[in-house]
Design a protein that fits this description.
Chain lengths: 301, 301, 301, 301
């Protein structure tokens, strides 16, 4: 099969180099407001941060720490009253693991790595325990493997309408299943919950995506899904709004409760983030622009 | 103050040695059922496993792995059809950190260690996000510190009636707040949710407890709460049914979704676990029997 | 078509005569416990109570009142401490309205009788508002009429497993949709919610049914569904456990919140009700035993 | 006591005459959209509609029907595509029943009129069954009577912040209890649920109110609460935003599911309603302007 053949040749598409920039804008109303930002591109084996810059409008001592389990990078600041602007820009190289979907199997529970296990359990927004029988009825009879996960992806995409402002911070996978509307975060929660409900580990990933449809509004943070299959985490975008090959990873977690791009403790007003992403040429002068491909892609492991 | 004085003297009560034994009993209906057990006492700096024995009635190769982040020890087996008995016994030494509650402060979000942060976020059974305003109204005005957490503990204990079989695997902190009944797991979830709702990290711990009231039924697994204060996790038992000084830790997690003593994938029937715990003399011949004390206790860090 | 022809002949199957008996058994723990029973067969144009007897073991003054809107008959007593037995028996004649399903249309909202309108709105256990988009996706495209309601009936029956003790007094239509298990009450709530979600009036009916499968346990109260189509309420049994032609109506309401067979205010323990039903010959000596028929049946209007 | 004396004198304050006007504005996108309006002032023994006018911008045949159980008046129209304006104005006389709160008792379940009973049961937005133990803990020990209901009213008012746009059509009493914010409808649902949870009948009433604080925005429909005490339904306004003496009743029901001012079936866009209310002199030339009074007021029965 041609997919397998081409994947065997070089295991990837060559590095995809992306240039990202984001600007956040707050008004801090009282002293001592704490911010936890997760707006740094993660360093992983397959996502290389070539350069990056962080600028804060207040004279703060930014501390950036990396969580060893997830590679999430957290910036914590305690801001003073008044305006606070945060600007981050970076150049990122992605070197995808590329595989033929037809060759990727599910992993028996007994063989899952320990650090994957917690992603089979239910979480705040992904109540997979309540969906077990429902999901087994829909997907339990399917051939196990990447194709079954693709079927869950397609089911979510087909039944759910992307509608801005249709959900709140309380909206869970069950709400989305019943309401049949949502934004990228809601699509992701529903797909994750259904995967876990049939005992397939799935997790929530956030970042910035290349190639979003401008009809959906100005560029924004994106949430997508990773599913553990074979021996690694594969990318899925159940909202169908982005190009998986153009994802830049910021945060990885169980669901949106874990990986807000900003968690704020205190009285703060905020404006919409401004976000940009572009594809540029790599060190070798070649420009690999993200595009839809039929392959299974992973940027983890 | 006398508490501080006595704590300053030796930092603990001397080692508490406990002997525990548990027996689990299953009928496996089909080939290939996976079990993930979390029934091994955790090894921590303050909980020392002196000896332990594991016996399985089937000729399986038990693999026991330790999660580096939580110290949880997982036994995974894939069982054959037929009966399966699992027996575990161990001798444990606990050497508590002991502190005067009046000296223990809360930790600002900006200063929390990174590996503590995720315990501020909502989880499957502890929807702290939905309880933020409710909790701030009840507890937001209290003096910050151990005393505030004790107030949350007392509030949960006072408003909730311990009632066997009053909850299901779907019961969450909100259900318990409204229903005002539950078992130890439910008390723990409610206390955790209320702590997180006022931005205090709290987590769910399971194990076996010494000194449970026999009126509550035969000895069973116990769930309790740890709250991050000062520079470590302190023990709380909002169900009021056990003696915190007699807790043997098996699992630590966000809530019950993370730390079931047994997670079973497949068609299996089970009987009630048989559990025993006794206080015995330590290596120095002294027997320190767990008792209620007015001090703050920690077995972590 | 033969169905229409036979229905045109006599509009019904001749009277179905049933003999029912029920016995309820309580221990009243404190003075002044109020009971509201709905255990009298309703008098309607098509359900005739030939004879009936009520016996109470305490010397109470039973007051039986009939709600003019629903025909529900309520027995209210304030019991003394000690045992209370309530026995009711009756002989009932049912004279069904019989119609060919293919001829029965839905009714436009603008043309619904005023006393039917409230059965389009959501209720405690039938959150049709939350299921609107879900139901429109599943059933919105179907040909409007009895057949669409039959499709909803079949969908519920096919996806839900009848399982004793699988639900509680808190279980709603959404829980049943997700959990895919329930008892007759849960099947009824789900079918009602889905009908209302596509703007078809549906209501909850309780009583005793002839012909229940003994494998489901001893005879019990039954809950079924009525849907307003054409110019009357037609019977549906989404649990598939009974013979609609053998339903004896006690109560009619929006959902189970309205028509418990017993609502008890105070401290009372109860035992399982004992219930009997048999088919007997009518005044003309003919015995019409309830059986499954392909016709649409109504006992209302 | 002076309250009792003054109430004994004339049983009311003299008729309160109010002039109301409302205008609704829609764009109908497709043929055959059905509207059910409940925008006519109810005719009751104590609310007299002196004059009224209805104007529709489309040449429709408006049918207005009165529900005999609730006195709700429903206007149903099937609109054509294009703009639709609905204007209603009326002059209303209110003649309140006035009583001394201290003399008003609760009614035993056994003595409640049959047509009041259903208002003890849970409904879509008022899940009193789930709040029974919670409410008994808060209010179960209080002296039974008007004062206990006033305590529930005060509890809701004190704990809940009036916040525009803080709730959706899915928000229930439990959400409001936990979230501690809402609009008038949410305050009403929570008070109703808590009353029913301690077995006191309570219902949801909509209409227009005199004297709303302009700081809350332009005049709007209002939702308030009626509680059955003594021998009639007494008015409560748990949102604290209006003057109960100035309520004009449109609809009465179990909760907001029953008495939307407009229920629309089809694709329609709408603008904010324009509403006016003023106090004018009555037939005798006296003008009684609604004001806050310490008496218990009823406009029902």
């Amino acid at each position: 099969m041609t997919l397998a053949a081409s994947a065997a040749d070089d295991d990837d598409f060559g590095p995809v180099r992306l240039r990202i920039a984001l600007a956040l804008d707050y008004d801090v109303a009282e002293p001592g407001c704490d911010f936890i930002f997760n707006i740094h591109a993660a360093h992983t084996e397959r996502q290389h941060v070539v350069t990056e810059t962080l600028t804060l409008s207040q004279p703060l001592q930014p501390a950036v720490e990396t969580d060893p389990a997830t590679h999430n990078r957290y910036l914590r600041v305690q801001a003073r009253p008044g305006p606070l602007q945060v600007a981050y820009s970076a150049t990122i190289d992605l070197r995808h693991h590329v595989a033929d979907p037809g060759t990727i199997a599910e992993v028996q529970i007994a063989r899952l790595p320990l650090n994957v296990l917690s992603y089979v359990y239910p979480s705040r927004y992904c109540q997979s325990d309540r969906l077990h029988r429902f999901a087994m009825r829909e997907f339990g009879h399917l051939w196990q493997g990447y194709g079954r996960v693709q079927a869950i992806h397609d089911w979510v995409l087909e039944r759910t309408a992307f509608t801005s402002n249709s959900s709140t911070s309380d909206t869970s996978a069950i709400d989305t299943l019943l309401g049949t509307v949502g934004v990228c975060r809601d699509f992701a929660h529903l797909m994750i919950a259904l995967c876990r409900a049939v005992n397939i580990p799935a997790r929530f990933t956030t970042g910035i995506d290349y190639g979003a449809d401008p009809a959906l509004g100005p560029p924004d943070f994106h949430a997508y899904v990773e599913v553990y299959l074979g021996d690694r985490w594969y990318l899925f975008d159940p909202s169908g709004t982005a190009i998986p090959m153009g994802f830049v990873r910021f945060g990885t977690g169980r669901d949106a409760a874990d990986v807000a791009f900003a968690t704020i403790f205190g009285s703060v007003t905020s404006r919409a983030p401004r976000i940009g992403i572009e594809s540029i040429a790599g060190d070798d002068g070649r420009q690999i622009t993200p595009r839809h491909v039929p392959h299974a892609l992973s940027t983890d492991g």
